[in-house]
Amino acid sequence: MLSLPPITLRLRGWKLIDRVAIAFLLLCSIALGAGCGLLFVYASDLPEIRALETYRPNVVTEIYADDGQMVGSFALQRRILMTYEQCPKILYNAVSSIEDQHFEDHWGIDFPRIAGAAYRNLIKGRRAEGASTITMQLAGNLFLDRSDRSFRRKMQEMLLSLQIERRYTKPQIFTMYTNQVYLAHGNYGFAAASQFYFGKPVTDLKLQEAALLAGMVRGPIYSPLNDPQRALGRRNLVLRRMQEEGKITPSEEAAAKKTPLGLHIQYPRNDLAPYFFEELRKYLESTYGTEAVHERGLRVYTTLNVGMQRAANLAVRDGLHAYDRRHGWRGGLPNILKDNLGTLENYEDDDWRRPIEKGSYVTGLVMAVDEKYATIKIGTYRAVISASDFAWTGRKKPSELLKVGDLAQFSIQDLRESTARVQVEQQPAPQAAMVAIDNPTGEIKALVGGYSFEDSKFNRATQAVRQVGSSFKIYVYADAIQKGASPCDTILDAPFTSISGGQPYSPRNYDEKFEGNITLRRALAGSRNVPAVKLAEKIGIGSVVETARRFGITTPMPPYLPLALGSADMKLIEHVSAFTVFPDDGIRIDPHMIRRVTSYDGALLEEARPAIHEVVPPEVAHTMTAMLEEVVQFGTGIAAKQLKRPAAGKTGTTQDYTDAWFIGFTPQITSGVWVGYDDKQISLGKKETGARAALPIWLEFMQNGLAGMPVLDFQNVVPLEQQAGDHVIHVDTPDTAPTEDEPRAPKERPPAVPPPAKTTEGTTGELRR
User: Which end of the chain has fewer CB atoms within 10 angstroms, the N or the C?
Assistant: First the structure.
């Protein structure tokens, strides 16, 4: 056998190695070329990273009360921007431990983690975990389609993350990430989520709370509202990872795991003053645009006073429920079993998502009923009612009133741990509205446009136009005083017929009686109709209309004598503003809701500069104040004496009791109340006057809203007896005045007298800033 020489074998070996090497280099070249080609293809349509320099996420428009506390917001995406310095260390550690353990070390891509995740996914035969870094998640959230799970998207995500890491620091990247990440239920960013889930700023988060939020980054399925057990498990996993990373001690982990979720959900419902906020929204959108309000974010510093608004909310609800109790039980309750709204065990009412407090009116679910008791579920509370809790209905047994599955209204009398003491109520049939204005500034401190904003968005304080009854008489008497009349002048209260609009017109008094010669002060305090019409005829009804215009009334006022008794329709906001002329020494400041508006960055966009109008001379204002004080001291508004501080005001009731009014003021605040049905043809009922239906609401509001404010006297107001000098006319007024106000003259006018022009109630009321 021939054998090749060693040198030949070596040459053949080298040729084989050369071929393998060449093949390997060729494959590497192909792979490199393919990689470069892929990079070119995937990078060719990447978004421009420089856009991050001007990137601004959608943020909420924040609404602040007059004391600087945030009370509401407008937003499409609920986001509160947070700086890196505001992020607590425990939150930073929780997020990095569960989402990107090597965040501080890599350049946007964590290759060891990618390899580990790929291996574990291969072993399990499915995609069990991902390997996206915080930077990659930020890139994907900002620039790429989140629903796309393709290889192309993952490559683009990596390339973008490398570019982001080259251009921005780790703190900048983390800050953008924490403000962008979605944390379920409309919350973007950890600051907004902290407010929503725990009712606290992000800087105050505890360890277990930070871990819960960090665990939700993976997706809404870990929301504690959607699945509390899954959220708890995910939170505890975050705590374990933090302990493994050395961010917390084993004892801290164990203690945190033992704590419950501890949620304190704060739904962004703008519940404090929904009608006030809706007026704001309409104005802001018309002035700055929808995008600015709902996406770019503004800071709106309003005139709203939190204490007064809460007092107004409660007073309106208490007053309407008191009215409803006077008129009996209507029944006809919705039933979840009959209407297929759920089961007794799983039903959750929207009312239960709000804070349930003593004095609240909430919906309760009837769980059980027998001859003596009924068991009611109100959120996490249980209540047992007996006959004393529904005595006003006239029923003796719960079974005569309620059925299992009924949804009824209840007022919370007391709360103890998991039990509540309640009284049966019902959804009021009529509506009410209230406005409170600060006299020295014209600032609107409280505004209620109806019983429930969720049931009706129509704002009866700014949009409704209703007949004002005898409260209109202030314009008649103010005009007369300005023309030289004195409160102690006398006028004949006797049957009277005049020609108005070419037809005879005979006004009537509420009590169908006549008092003969009485002073103007007595006529106003007792709200006598005949003297008011005579006075208007004497000074000229056209002059009265001009006076009302100076007071700020913009609605149509036909110049006919029935106008003196309030036949004209007015807006509550304008009527209340007009009354501020008297405590303000004859001037009127345009009512406004905004002190200033700034951009989210703090740049001033507008500042309140309300117009000031000289309406009547100061001495006229002082005289009218003294006369309206007598309405409270001796007249139809005598119930307001319970305020126990200097006050003045005027009642108003329309024929057939369709509208009830009371507008009153102290030296500091003027507030007004209207009560009635939205359907102008429906009567509130016999004797439901301004003094009975509206004044109690005003009184409750003023008692609570003015609590803590000093008791002041009206300045420069001379008592009427002193104004009369040596010719004092003592008015024969009883110690107690009638509790009912008088209706105005009948609505039926002579055919030749055109009715007042009506303003469509759906028209948006405009508030000057």
Answer: N
The upper half-sphere exposure of residue 27, i.e. CA atoms within 13 Å in the direction of its Cβ, equals: 5
Structure tokens at 514: 């006549």
Name the average pLDDT for the chain.
86
pLDDT tens figures, 156-211: 777 788 888 888 899 999 999 999 899 998 899 999 999 999 989 999 999 999 99
Report yes or no: 558 and 756 within 8 Å, Cβ to Cβ. Answer: yes
Contacts of 395 (CB under 8 A, 6+ apart): 329, 387, 401
Please name the residue that has the structure tokens 């959750």.
Answer: 348
The two structure tokens encoding residue 411:
């007022």
Collapsed DSSP state (helix, strand, coil) of residue 100:
coil
Phi, psi of 533 (to 5 degrees): -70, -40
Taking alpha carbons only, the member of 693, 679, 698 closest to residue 743 is: 693
In what helix (H) or strand (E) does residue 622 lie, and over which residues does it extend?
Answer: helix 618-633
Per-residue pLDDT tens over the stretch 622-646: 999 999 999 999 999 999 999 999 9
Rounded CA-CA distance 368/616 in Å is: 63
Tokens describing residue 52: 């991050």
Q: Which residue among 161, 194, 411, 470 is the active-site one?
A: 470
Contact between 616 and 707 (Cβ < 8 Å): no
Active site residue 245: no
Query: Is 129 noted as a catalytic residue in this protein?
Result: no
Chain centroid offset of residue 667 CA: 28
Residue 437 is inside which H or E element, if any? strand 431-438
User: Which ranges in 446-540 belong to alpha helices (H)?
Assistant: 473-482, 520-525, 529-539
The β-bridge partners of 323 are none
3-state helix, strand, coil split of the chain in percent (to 5) is 40, 15, 40
Which 3 state secondary structure label does DSSP give 300?
Answer: strand
C-alpha triplet 403, 407, 412: angle, nearest 5°: 110
- Classify the phi-psi angles of 127: left when phi > 0, otherwise alpha if psi is within -120 to 50, otherwise beta: beta
The answer to whether 328 touches 390, Cβ cutoff 8 Å, is no
Contacts of 528 (CB under 8 A, 6+ apart): 493, 509, 515, 518, 522, 742
**DSSP characters for 12-41?**
HHHHHHHHHHHHHHHHHHHHHHHHHHHHHH
- Give residue-wise pLDDT tens across range 545-555: 999 999 999 99
Closest CA to 312 of 70, 669, 74, 1: 669
d(Cα 653, Cα 674) in Å, to the nearest integer?
Answer: 10
Give percent of the chain above pLDDT 70.
Answer: 82
Taking the C-alpha atoms of residue 262 and residue 166, their distance in angstroms, rounded to an integer, is 40
Tell me, yes or no, if the pTM score tops 0.90.
Answer: no
Query: Which residue in 62, 96, 97, 99 is the catalytic one?
Result: 99
